[in-house]
Write a structure and sequence with these properties.
single chain; about 240 residues; OB fold (Dihydrolipoamide Acetyltransferase, E2P); 15 strands
Length: about 240
């Protein structure tokens, strides 16, 4: 699922944008959700610091000591991957917007057709092979860093993430070759994202992740898995 956040100093515009996006999510069956909206920069930055966010709609001409460009520059100091889409009535900001690697720039008043085109282009970009998202079906994308492990459950694969679990009908044989190198087979029923591991108890054959979730290490995969873990300097 893709998490969207909206920030504008006009609450009526925020509500209108939220409604428009929700209609587009429903129209195209996009697995997405607006998880937060705010008129205050401080609340926005606090939320971004503590939560997983994939797309940010941000007004430029905010009634604050910081404008949207300055906010984006601050966000980019710690988050290089978030998609930023600027919205503003002032076209002169367009060149500054792309200096902070904004994905798009939507002029006010916001055209429904322009918003729809931007959203479709966004999902097309997310679905490309050059980013850090994993496509588990045609409409659902999960950021690699959000996945803790993948579990085989009968004919299904279960993706355990920091906000939800996702199930698809597939097999490790089909899906494993699509995964980046940080996903390592650790058990006949588990593939672990080593980037999210906090500890490995080799004597207990147990892996603990940053959200305190756990999965097992199988004897067939143990030596190779521990070798990878040693190379990554993960505590044991």
């Amino acid at each position: 699922m893709l998490n969207f956040v909206l920030c504008d100093d006009n609450i009526n515009f925020l509500n209108s944008l939220e409604n428009a996006l929700n209609k587009l999510f429903l129209k195209y069956d996009f697995d997405s959700k607006i998880v937060f909206k705010s008129t205050k920069i401080s609340d926005l930055l606090d939320y971004l610091q503590k939560n997983s966010v994939h797309v940010l709609f941000l007004d430029i001409n905010l009634k604050s000591s910081m404008n949207g460009i300055s906010v984006a520059e601050k966000i980019r100091q710690t988050n290089k991957d978030i998609y930023i889409i600027f919205i503003t009535a002032y076209i002169e900001y367009v060149f500054l917007a792309f200096q902070v690697k904004a994905f798009d720039y939507l002029p006010k008043p916001l055209s429904p057709e322009r918003l729809e085109a931007s959203l479709l282009r966004l999902f097309d970009d997310i679905g490309s092979s050059s980013n850090n998202f994993i496509c588990i079906n045609n409409k659902t994308y999960i950021k690699e860093d959000d996945i803790y492990f993948i579990k085989r459950d009968g004919m299904k694969l279960v993706f355990a993430t920091n906000y939800n679990n996702y199930e698809i009908y597939s097999s490790f044989k089909k899906f494993f070759p699509k995964l980046p190198d940080n996903f390592v087979r650790c058990h006949k029923s588990y593939i672990a994202n080593i980037n999210n591991i906090t500890s490995v108890e080799a004597n207990r054959n147990m892996i603990t992740f940053s959200n305190n979730a756990e999965c097992y290490i199988g004897p067939r995969y143990k030596n190779n898995f521990l070798e990878v873990i040693n190379n990554e300097n993960i505590s044991k």
